[in-house]
């Protein structure tokens, strides 16, 4: 059951003073929704649960930093969850949890089929065909299928930095080609 903002504010103030029961109140009120928020970012239940666990450690340690004048308590709590989820993606810890799929199957096939559905006279199709196949696949997996850079790296079995560079350079090439 979600707590009203005043009760969350009170619970955070009690957490700042070391009241573990107050943390439990916040946990019981917000945990299910927090897991949902984390899952939208990291896409895996077990990883989302890890994100929320780490977020609650941060909430406990930083409750004294909550300032109700800067915004509502839920905004503060969910910002911690969101930032923790994004940190997990940035750290690359997620790559270890993504099943490796060879480039020419599953997701890569979906990405290629999206490009194939463009009309032959389409400038975007022409520009995409001008890219290296792995770079094209990375761009399509990111922008058509919605995969994060970490997911793409795990699925294509290449380093995260390589995927980021491929996508950045490919977007520059596409912009120049389309312009």
TrEMBL record:
The keyword Transcription regulation applies. GO terms for molecular function: DNA binding; sigma factor activity. InterPro entries: RNA_pol_sigma-70-like, RNA_pol_sigma-70_dom, RNA_pol_sigma70_ECF_CS, RNA_pol_sigma70_r2, RNA_pol_sigma70_r4_t2, RNA_pol_sigma_r2, RNA_pol_sigma_r3/r4-like, WH-like_DNA-bd_sf. Residues 122-171 form the RNA polymerase sigma factor 70 region 4 type domain. Keywords: DNA-binding, Sigma factor, Transcription, Transcription regulation. It comes from the Bacteria. GO terms for biological process: DNA-templated transcription initiation. SUPFAM superfamilies: Sigma2 domain of RNA polymerase sigma factors, Sigma3 and sigma4 domains of RNA polymerase sigma factors. Residues 27-94 form the RNA polymerase sigma-70 region domain. Belongs to the sigma-70 factor family. ECF subfamily. This is RNA polymerase sigma factor.
